Amino acid sequence: MSKVLIFIDWFAPGYKAGGPITSNVNIVEHLSDKLDFYVITSSFDYHATAPYKNIQENKWVDWQGAKVMYINPSCLSWKVLKKAVEEAACDVWYINGIYSRYYSLYPLLLAKNLKPKKVIVCARGMLSPHALAVKSVSKKIFLTLAKTVNLYRNVIFHATNEEEKGYIQSAISKKNIVDVAENLPRKMDLQANGCVKVKGEVRLVSFARISSEKNTLFALKALRKCKEKVVYHIYGQINSEIYWQECQKAIAELPTNVTVEYKGCVSPHDMQKIYTHYHALYLPSTGENYGHAILESFMNGCPVVISNKTPWLGLEKKNIGWDLPLDESLYALVIDHLSRVGSDEYLQMRSCVIAFISAYLSNDETRKRYLNMFQL
């Protein structure tokens, strides 16, 4: 079998970095019967101050169909990375992200010297206009230098949709090949049973980093305009204490009919059980390259209330949720409507969600696209 070497800042059992970890875990789980995967990653989770428990550091260990090297950040260097790459001896390299020194930049520079047969870079949404607008000066300087030294010469890019393909070609070059393959879903059983729905109340949940990109503050402010009873529980890593303080202030100003709780971080393995306590995912983010949280909401039979800045569109017509422009009043109206929905109508929505996601998951085309991308 072909050997694929994955470079990523964080990998399982980590989960606090969200989507990129999920995407790469899913690649391994779906394709390890056809490809040999090696993963070089950190032994710390995102924002963690200690390594994972019961994980051997700085050596190759088995992980569910892959070989993984969890490198302690204090040991990480060019020399250590080069040694790990040479030990893996893979012909195909899959590099996640653009700006990481050790897991994006160094692998590209090593490739110039070690010359693997194929180098693929997955931008992970980092080249979208919205992402480039954050710390724009430093990113512009980096990309200019990258072009000057031909950092991405002969590199294939992986985009998860046609829109991202355009962003990559605009930011890097139209000369680079860009393979399009959307993210693979997590392997799990569909959840048909959900939270009992009564008229006059709705229980909302979000699984996302507490950040401006995920629009947590907007989500809270929109709830100020709700008239019905709303319970909203937030799960996810706090990215910025300053931003979280703004969110806490917004929570304190909410009317008495709205209850909000921050529930901390949660392992993906616990999400299916948690979803049974909620009626809908509430995630009005400023943009999603894919939106694993949205997909997993559907896989748990849960409708969604999200922004129209994701690939998941036309939801209301399918009776599986709402994708709305970022207008607080619109979200309040939809949430109040969902609150007034009774048991029968809500169960019909859940049935539509299960039917939609079952059809989506039955399509094997995405898996074939990954196999084609990784083949020599």
UniProtKB/TrEMBL annotation:
It comes from Phocaeicola vulgatus (Bacteroides vulgatus). This is Glycosyl transferases group 1. PANTHER family: SULFOQUINOVOSYL TRANSFERASE SQD2. SUPFAM superfamilies: UDP-Glycosyltransferase/glycogen phosphorylase. Keywords: Transferase. One of its GO terms (molecular function) is glycosyltransferase activity. InterPro entries: Glyco_trans_1 (IPR001296), Glycosyltransferase_grp1 (IPR050194). It comes from the Bacteria. Residues 199-310 form the Glycosyl transferase family domain.
